[in-house]
């Protein structure tokens, strides 16, 4: 099965959510704005210079109030467009993702 997440195959609804996330992949990092979240993944606005492709592995650092990091989540790039990136978590997460001690 193709691993790319498509709207009609999602097992959970996406929740609009405005916050900041840092995406760490390969040897680069980008700050991005979240578009939406679900227990299985998230969408972000594609940051300038984003150079990853579908199936690349990443680590996501979710922030609260654009400052305090609250969760670190392993994921993979599911899709990339000119303006957005879809990310699929390795394990389901709370919405929004939280540090394990806060769940």
From TrEMBL:
Entry protein name: PilZ domain-containing protein
SUPFAM superfamilies xrefs: PilZ domain-like
Organism: Lysobacter yangpyeongensis
The PilZ domain, residue ranges: 8-94
Superkingdom of this protein's organism: Bacteria
């Amino acid at each position: 099965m193709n691993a790319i997440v498509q709207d009609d195959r999602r097992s959970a609804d996406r929740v609009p959510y405005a916050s900041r996330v840092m995406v760490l992949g390969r040897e680069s990092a980008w700050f991005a704005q979240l578009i939406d979240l679900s227990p299985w993944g998230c969408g972000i606005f594609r940051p300038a210079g984003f150079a990853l492709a579908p199936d690349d592995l990443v680590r996501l650092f979710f922030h609260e109030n654009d400052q305090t990091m609250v969760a670190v989540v392993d994921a993979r790039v599911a899709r990339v467009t000119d303006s957005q990136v879809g990310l699929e978590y390795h394990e389901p997460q709370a919405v929004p993702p939280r540090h394990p001690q806060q769940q």
